[in-house]
Design brief:
By secondary structure, the protein is an alpha+beta fold. The protein has 3 helices and 7 strands.
């Protein structure tokens, strides 16, 4: 194989790598962080994810805005109409985070078309029992 052909493939690999990095970077934009006290009742608003990330609230439903959770029972839910994150049931900090000093729950939100993934962290604050 002559050297001009090798340089050409190197160039192509470089640009493919560059393009892949741009696509990955475009898919993940920001991280927001909220805090909520434990033992809040179901339906308590934690924060407005869409507003805080600058996402047009009118497009949330058609873009499939949702929380991607690894557990079958999610502690939080997001409203597709307005982008507000709500407590989905009472949170017992000692159960969720055991004896850790910092209780931080990591969530991922997804929007489709175009794909966006945002990281959301919720700190559960201990209420002395």
């Amino acid at each position: 194989m002559d050297s001009s052909r090798r340089v050409s493939w190197r160039s192509i690999r470089y640009w493919l790598f560059f393009l892949a990095m741009l696509l990955v970077r475009k898919g993940c934009f920001a991280q927001v962080r909220y805090s909520v006290s434990e033992e809040q009742k179901e339906g308590t608003a934690v924060g407005n994810i869409a507003k805080d990330l600058g996402i047009d609230q009118r497009t949330l439903k058609e873009r499939g805005f949702r929380i991607v959770s690894s557990s079958s029972e999610s502690i939080f839910r997001v409203n597709q109409d307005d982008g507000i994150l709500y407590v989905n049931g009472k949170i017992d900090r000692e159960v969720v985070c055991e004896q850790n000093n910092l209780c931080l729950i990591s969530l991922k939100t997804v929007l489709e078309n175009p794909l966006e993934i945002h990281h959301v962290a919720v700190e559960v604050i201990d209420v002395n029992d």
